[in-house]
Each structure stands twice: as C-alpha cells, then as structure tokens.
UniProtKB/TrEMBL annotation:
It comes from the Eukaryota. It comes from Periophthalmus magnuspinnatus. Belongs to the alpha-carbonic anhydrase family. Keywords: Glycoprotein, Lyase, Membrane, Metal-binding, Transmembrane, Transmembrane helix, Zinc. GO terms for cellular component: plasma membrane. This is carbonic anhydrase. Residues 25-250 form the Alpha-carbonic anhydrase domain.
Amino acid sequence: MIFLLCSNLSSLYVIIIIIITTYLTAFTLGLTHSSQWSEHFPDCAGSSQSPVDVVTSLTKYDPSLTPMTPLGYSQHNHQPFTLLNSGHTVMVSLPGWMGLGGLPWLFSAVQLHLHWGSGGPSHGGSEHTIDGLSSEAELHIVHYNSELFPNVSAAMRQKNGLAVLGILIEAGDETNPGFNNIIRYLSRVRHAEQEDLIPGFDISSLLPKDLGRYYRYNGSLTTPPCYQEVIWTVFYEKVKISKAQVRQIS
Ligand SMILES: [Zn+2]
C-alpha cells in the first residue's frame, strides 16, 4: 500500500497506491545484480522491498496521515557534520537530537545520503520512480524509532523501526544553495572510506517546501541487508539543483 498525503490551506486529502512495482538498484558488496543479494541477505527476496515505482493513478486518500515535521533540522549550532564516502554512496552523519515528527512515534535522525545515476529523464539516478520516470538523483534522510528502541542497530530489524524521507532531485537552472553545503565538499571524499568534517548547515534547506504532500508506504532498506521495517515518505514535490550541481554528484 502506498499513501499520498496532500494538504493545502483549505483541504487535506491522502491517496493510497494499491499496486506498486518493486525493483532494486544493483550495487554494493560486490554483488552485481540484486538477484544475488538474497543469497546472502534473505530479506532482499521479501515482498515489501524498496524502492518502488509509484503509479499515481492507483494512489488513494488516507485522512489519517499528517504533514511531516522536521525537528531540530535547522539547529545545527555550527557543529560540524561528518561527510563519508561509504564506497557506494556519499553520507552525512546526523546528530540524534535531530528528529522527525508527523508519525505515530518520535524518530531520531541517523544520516542522510545520496543516490545518483547517469542522468536523463528515464535513466536518472533516483531509486523511486513516479509513473515509471526517474529523477536525476534522490536524497534519503534516515531516522530510527527512538521512542521504542535505544539505537538504530536495535531498531533496524524491528517493525516500524526506521523512517526514511525520500526527496527526488531534478536538474534546473539555478544553483541550490542548500545542496551546495554537501556538493562543494565532495572532492574531499573522492575515495571509498574517506571522511572529513564539513560545516554544519540547516538540513531543512535540502527539503522541498511542501512537506504535506507525499507518498507513504511500508518498505525496506534499498540495499542489503534489505530489512523490511522502513516507513517510507517520498515527497510529491521535487527539489531542483543546477545542471552543474548534478554533474558534480554524478
Ligand atoms: Zn538510500
């Protein structure tokens, strides 16, 4: 099931997507095809795997959903963040006092990371697709259920343990200053396992303006170990970065 929450000044409506297409992006751990993942990680063969293709004509209204509320995203207090090249993505560690409201439990931030590809409207680098079309890239902000679990390790195998925000990124004409807080430092972590401190910045500058319209479904981590305990929120509004910025992350 996928739910879409939409809100504006006068109305609140939510749509459920009943039929979804599941596929996986193949990379990491030396396994070149997702079909191999399940040999080592049984969850990767599960029935609730992410990412998905959102078929908008099959979405349905769910009045129980509420807008997402970032908590402390802007209170970086000039503390530096750690930027890490994990070998298959670029990741920024986030402090646990950043969190996420708008879900039945309070979730604490863990990290954010980017997915990207070769570009093009149908061959982009996003993991989620909308009606079969991908975007240039996708940002994931990972949180764990800190009301029920003591840390992310304990949460990631438990029901409702994780909540991930998915932000689809497309190319535009203007430089996105929020994303430059990451992109300008990518040259420091060109190689796997490299990490460096970067200046703290307002994480909400990476989000779309409209946090009240999104697709909601229960899915999984998109790479091994593929645990199927993720509450996914993929925002309807895409974020634009400049073509030059796209080139820098591609
Ligand atoms: Zn991801």
